[in-house]
Amino acid sequence: MKKVSLALLTAITAVVGVVSWIVDTMLIGGGASPFPVPWSVAVVLIVAASAVVSFGWRVREYQQGRAAHLDPFTATRTVMLAHAAAYTGAVLLGVYGAHALALIGDWGHAPRREVIVASILAAVGSAVLAGAGLVVQRWCETGGDSGQSSVDASP
């Protein structure tokens, strides 16, 4: 499985961020209310990142010889989860970061300030999720081809 690169995730975040910022700016400029961001979004993203790291830790333990056996399907699912987390975190970072930037001019308006702060926290949670995906992907690498991200979990 091909590795997800930091450059690709940065590009995804930038493209999604620009598109989201344009859409937010147009909607808010047209009189629409900004979409609310629940405070729980950041918590959910951090919990998801913790789950990714937890699954990845089992693979890491196997890779370092501290675990006797690892089911190959579990290893494959862990790599796929890491990739999904990295991509999801990058997309959400672009969306929530752009949302905060589109509203930053309204900082003096208390209800919008709350949306800005919640968006920033959600963006931080998104970055943590993307980072967790990248770290777990690294833990799942084998000593072989450097462009691959896989685990040899044979007994």
Write up what this structure looks like.
The chain has 155 residues and is mainly α. The protein has one domain. Helices cover 71% and strands 0% of the residues. Helix 1 packs parallel to helix 3 (72-103) and helix 2 (40-63) packs parallel to helix 4. The longest helix has 32 residues, at 72-103.
User: How far apart, in Å, are the first and last alpha carbons?
Assistant: 21 Å
- Broad shape: elongated
Oligomerization: single chain
Rounded radius of gyration (Å): 19 Å
> Pairing-aware structural class of the strands and helices?
mainly alpha
Run of helices and strands = HHHH
User: How confident overall, as mean pLDDT?
Assistant: 88
Strand content: under 5%
Total domain modules = 1
Enumerate how many helices there are, as a single number: 4
Low-confidence stretches: none
User: What's the helical proportion of residues?
Assistant: over 70%
DSSP, total strands = 0
What is this structure, in a nutshell?
The protein has 155 residues and is mostly helical. 71% of the residues lie in helices and 0% in strands.
What is the secondary structure topology, with strand pairs?
Blueprint: H1 6-29, H2 40-63, H3 72-103, H4 110-139
Helix pairs in contact: 1-3, 2-3, 2-4, 3-4
Q: Can you tag this structure with a few keywords?
A:
155 residues, 71% helix, mainly alpha, elongated
